[in-house]
Amino acid sequence: MVERPDRSTVTDKKSGLHSEIDNVTSDNRNPDSTNNTEGDAALGSASESQTESQLGSNSSSRARWQTIARVFIAPIVLPHELAHAAVAVLVGLNPVIRILPQWSGTTVPLGQFDAEIDTSTPTWAIQAVAAAPLAVYLTVAALVGTFISINTAVVLPIILLLSFSASLSTGDIAIISNPAEARQAGAFVVQGSTWQNITIITTPVTTAVVAILLI
């Protein structure tokens, strides 16, 4: 005897068949949707890689130019900063010198001297370190003018170099006039001082004194 198939079974089979057909139709209907998604992801990844590569290249180029600039600037600014450092060592501090340092102020210094200080650092030591370039290079100018006969062809460059090295910066003046703030900050850094604009006067005066000592 042949059994009659149950109606629900037939219906289920038909339903399953329709479901499979729908799936196949859906897959065939959108063959590019998956490819488009994968393509967009690949393009996005390639774009990000290209951007990162470009940023890395720009950073490398910037670092290279900074190194070149430091090489040319160092002979000009180092004498001034080394005077700070020499006196700092004499008073027991550990100096740090940077050429073209990263700076957040309105004007970027060509060189920077710094050293850690604390409440035990005497005021006279802070002021002596800040004023060191003036004392050091006026002394150098006096010694050179006394013991060395300078050719007139090179006297002007020497005057400019020594006066530039001896001249106090606005930061130096600010620290000399407000050593307490530097001590509180723990470094040779202050916000500013009304006296710092006096460099308009002190710089040409320093240049004149250096010239008198050399000639």
Automatic annotation (TrEMBL):
<feature type="compositionally biased region" description="Basic and acidic residues">
    <location>
        <begin position="1"/>
        <end position="21"/>
    </location>
</feature>
<protein>
    <submittedName>
        <fullName>Uncharacterized protein</fullName>
    </submittedName>
</protein>
<keyword id="KW-0812">Transmembrane</keyword>
<feature type="transmembrane region" description="Helical">
    <location>
        <begin position="195"/>
        <end position="214"/>
    </location>
</feature>
<feature type="transmembrane region" description="Helical">
    <location>
        <begin position="154"/>
        <end position="175"/>
    </location>
</feature>
<feature type="transmembrane region" description="Helical">
    <location>
        <begin position="71"/>
        <end position="93"/>
    </location>
</feature>
<feature type="compositionally biased region" description="Polar residues">
    <location>
        <begin position="22"/>
        <end position="38"/>
    </location>
</feature>
<feature type="region of interest" description="Disordered">
    <location>
        <begin position="1"/>
        <end position="59"/>
    </location>
</feature>
<keyword id="KW-1133">Transmembrane helix</keyword>
<keyword id="KW-0472">Membrane</keyword>
<feature type="compositionally biased region" description="Polar residues">
    <location>
        <begin position="46"/>
        <end position="59"/>
    </location>
</feature>
<feature type="transmembrane region" description="Helical">
    <location>
        <begin position="124"/>
        <end position="147"/>
    </location>
</feature>
